[in-house]
Amino acid sequence: MGLDLGSLFRDYHESLVRMLTRRTGDRGRAEELAQETFARAVAAPPLNPRPWLFAVALNLLREEGRNAATRERRLVLVRDEEHVAPYEQPDEAYEREETRLRVRAALAELSERDRDVLLLQAEGFDYDEIAQATGLARGAIGTTLARARKRLHEVYTQGEGGNHVARG
Amino acid sequence: MSHVDDGTLHALVDDELDAQERASVEAHLASCGDCARRFAEATAMARQVTTLLGALDEVPSAGRAVPAAPRVSITTPDAARHAVSVPMRRRATVIRRLAIAASVMLVASVSYQVGRQREAPMAAAQDSSTAAATPEALAAAGAATSVSGATAAAVVAPAVTAAPPVVSAGERAARLATERTSVAGAGAAAVGPVATSATQQPFVPSVPMPAPPAAEGARQIDTSVARRAVAVQGAAVARMPALGTYDAASPPSERAMRMRRMEGQLNSVVVTGVQAATAREAQKAAADAAGDTGDARPLSIPGYRMSESESVSSVTVRRYVPEAGPTVTLLIVQASGKATARDARRDTVSQFVVTTVDGQSIVRWHAKERDYELRGALAPDSLVKLATLLR
């Protein structure tokens, strides 16, 4: 069976965008990266699509991170989008946004590798797939995940405590 | 057995141990309270982390729609395969042109849909009277790009319309006029290379444009249209027979691989439009922004002024509004001029411009030192049928 971009898209697009959104905190950018990733899948059809797609997307993200000019352009686009963001009940929105920011901050404390492994696992990747997508040895995945989870949890919980103290 | 390390505990949580490891770890947990407690913690932590990561999905810009998959997954009544008839020896060339055409049509399709969303249906009477008012303008538009008779032109009529393969300027103008007065959606699109001489300069639409009531949402140029269309273009090209499909069981022949590489170049022009992923492209984009290119400069359209312009890497989307009279919007998607010179030598699509007004699209592109154009009511289902041919 050849590459069927349609089914590839159906199977992985949502998950890829979600992972990239979690990673970047920017839905629009995540979609752009996903589009570019699928465009590359067309140019060079992968044998093992899921780890391939996610590996390519993460590489694109890294490449892009090194590129200041691109980042600048993106800031403009993101700022524009914020104007059209829907508003919900203020309290609920505030709380949710606070949680989101805290998780983001905690995630930022992780090393890039730990973060990638964690996010891939959250998309239902098994250890073999994570190993393929990241280039890590399969035997190292459990340890990496243990460290990443612990750290994320730790930093998040610290943030929670800090906030309560500040409020109290 | 000694205590179980964290990595192994988490692997157990994730059910990633093989049967043997699993049995021995579980045996240990049964007899070691410490490790059993750590396992319970690891399980809870994994669950909690999953929940926390879920909180990241609530991003402020989540209101944006996810691009719809159907545009990419084009599946296929076989009958449509036979809708194009061309001599076999020309077939590869024509197929390639069709691929280019189809991809551009897909671009047009996206614009078309955007157009449809923001424009209220037009009164047919108003439409036909406007179109009839200036036949000279139509003829002029057609004459500027008269068809070179020496080159074969393929006509694709996915719906019911059968059109002659080579279209004269007059016929073209007439057909456009006819289409403009007919119900939009029954799309017939003529594809043909046109003489290159007169068309190098920017395209000046002289077709009379009926006035759509401008909705509030129409204000914002949607560059995501360009981005998505560009990605979809890659999909259409990938479905060309010449490309073949990749099959692990029977690797493609060397020739097929060569074809694939050629088409890959064609893709790459397009893909550069998606994002500036490399430093080189960023430089190019910066140069474009500084006006350092010929063709990427805003088109000058008499009677119109450019109201908005936004670039994403080498693709620029511009909106034009008339200086006086009824509100008409031209949405022009243009690839940068930088790509033009280099890619012309490579037999690749180097520039395309889509103008969509009231569901009528005029698409022009440049490939291998020739200009091509396509116009008509590019209904989405026609596009799907055409793309089907290219599988």
Indicate the multimeric state: heterodimer
Count up the helices of chain A: 8
Q: Tell me roughly what share of residues is in helical segments of chain B.
A: 40-55%
Element string of chain B (H = helix, E = strand) = HHHHHHEHEHHHEEEHEEEH
Straight-line N-to-C gap of chain B = 59 Å
Radius of gyration of chain A: 18 Å
Strand order of the largest sheet of chain B: 1-2-8-7-6-5-4-3
Please tally the helical runs of chain B, counting DSSP H or I stretches of 4 or more residues: 12
Name its key features.
A: 168 residues, 8 helices, 82% helix, globular, disordered C terminus, B: 391 residues, alpha+beta
Describe this structure in words.
The complex is a heterodimer of chains A (168) and B (391). Chain A is mostly helical and 168 residues long. Chain A contains eight helices and no strands. Chain A has helices at 5-24, 27-43, 49-65, 68-82, 90-108, 112-122, 127-134, 138-167. Chain A is globular and about 45 Å long. Residues 71-88 and 162-168 of chain A have low confidence and may be disordered. Chain B has helices at 6-13, 19-31, 33-55, 88-118, 124-133, 135-143, 169-181, 223-238, 254-271, 279-289, 337-344, 380-389, and strands at residues 154-156, 189-194, 304-312, 315-322, 330-335, 349-357, 360-367, 370-377. Chain B starts with 5 loop residues before the first helix and ends with a helix. In chain B, α8 runs antiparallel to α9. Chain B has twelve helices and eight strands. The longest helix of chain B has 31 residues, at 88-118. Chain B has 391 residues and is α+β, with helices and mostly antiparallel strands. At the A-B interface, α1, α2, α3, α4 and α5 of A face α1, α3, α8, α9 and α10 of B.
